[in-house]
Specification:
With about 140 residues, the protein is mainly α. The protein is built from 4 helices and no strands. The chain is about 70% helix and about 0% strand. The chain is elongated, with a radius of gyration of 19 Å.
Length: about 140
C-alpha cells in the first residue's frame, strides 16, 4: 500500500482552524463549568452547608480537565478530518492553551460565567492552526 500524499496547505489549514476553534470552545466550557462548581462550593461553605467536596478540589479539577480536553479534541478532530502527523499541532495547542489559562485564570476566577479575553482565545486558535503546517518527514519520504 503506497503512502497517501499529504493534504495541500490551504485545506489542512482550514481543517486545523475549525478543529482548533472547537478545541478552544470545548476547553473553555470545561473550565467554566469547573469554576462554577468551585463557586457553588464557596457559596455553600459560606452558608454553612457542606457540599461534599472542597472548592480547592473543584478548582484543581477544572484546570486539569481543561488541560486534558484540548489535546484530546485536537488529536481526534484532526484524525476525523483525515489528517495525520498532528503531533506538533497538538503540542503547540496544549502549551498555548495552558499559557492563556494560566495568565487569565485570575480574571475569570472572580465571577461565574466570565470569559477569557477574546484576543487570547483568537490567538490560541490562530497559533494552533498555523502550527498544523509543521509536519515531520517520515523515513522514506522523498522531496517532491
Amino acid at each position: 500500500m503506497a503512502p497517501s500524499s499529504p493534504t495541500p496547505l490551504a485545506p489542512r489549514l482550514l481543517k486545523a482552524l475549525i478543529v482548533s476553534a472547537v478545541g478552544v470552545a470545548a476547553s473553555h466550557l470545561i473550565l467554566s463549568d469547573g469554576l462554577y462548581l468551585s463557586f457553588t462550593g464557596q457559596a455553600a461553605a459560606t452558608l454553612g452547608a457542606e457540599p461534599g467536596y472542597s472548592t480547592d478540589q473543584a478548582f484543581t479539577a477544572a484546570v486539569v480537565n481543561t488541560a486534558l480536553v484540548m489535546p484530546i479534541v485536537l488529536w481526534i478532530g484532526m484524525l476525523i478530518t483525515g489528517e495525520r502527523r498532528v503531533g506538533p499541532m497538538v503540542l503547540v495547542g496544549m502549551v498555548s492553551w495552558i499559557t492563556v489559562v494560566g495568565n487569565g485564570i485570575d480574571g475569570i476566577d472572580d465571577a461565574p460565567g466570565t470569559l477569557l479575553p477574546i484576543r487570547s482565545l483568537v490567538l490560541v486558535v490562530a497559533v494552533t492552526a498555523l502550527s498544523s503546517v509543521v509536519r515531520r518527514k517520515r523515513r522514506g519520504d522523498v522531496p517532491a
